[in-house]
Design brief:
cytochrome c-type biogenesis; alpha/beta; single chain; TlpA family protein disulfide reductase; 5 helices; Thioredoxin-like_sf; about 30% helix; disulfide bond; Thioredoxin_CS; Glutaredoxin
């Protein structure tokens, strides 16, 4: 319900920007890793269920949940749900925070704005943290606005 309320107050995305909804294929995007390498999504995630967490270095609830996401990612290993972060931030700030928090799961960077990765992944209100569960086939399974409270909270949410 919170998602519906936030979407009603969100400005319309710019003309031509595809906003994925539940069941839709994630729109193709090219984002950079924090190290500057170009990555095509959702192609980079093909074949594995992926938890995509949008965050920023200035977002306290984002930073609080990231160690739990890291622990979840380690538990999942090479065959479980993969975790990918997308920082709506500048690369230097994102990289510094990832190092400080010792986050090893892959992270991409996008400039915040009306057509950023968060908007395209179904969050036109820009509320962070925002998480999307993407199927192995690249479809949006579910979304979540707000932080996870624990590793168990993450595990429960990823059951689809």
């Amino acid at each position: 319900m919170l998602g519906a309320v936030l979407q009603t107050r969100a400005p319309a995305p710019p003309h031509g920007v595809i906003v994925a909804e539940r069941g839709d294929i994630v729109p193709a995007m090219r984002l950079l890793t924090v190290d500057g390498a170009a990555t095509g999504i959702p192609k980079a995630w093909a074949g594995r269920t992926t938890l995509v967490n949008l965050w920023a270095s200035w977002c306290a609830p984002c930073l609080k949940e990231m160690p739990e996401l890291e622990a979840f990612a380690r538990e999942q290993g090479a065959n479980g749900t993969q975790v990918v972060g997308i920082a709506l931030d500048d690369a230097a700030s994102a990289q510094a925070m990832l190092q400080r928090l010792r986050i090893a799961y892959p992270n991409l960077v996008d400039a915040p704005g009306p057509a950023d990765a968060g908007v395209r992944l179904g969050n036109p209100a820009g509320v962070l943290p925002y998480t999307v569960l993407v199927s192995a086939e690249g479809r949006v399974l579910k979304t979540r606005i707000g932080p996870f409270e624990s590793r168990q909270d993450i595990a429960d949410w990823t059951q689809h």
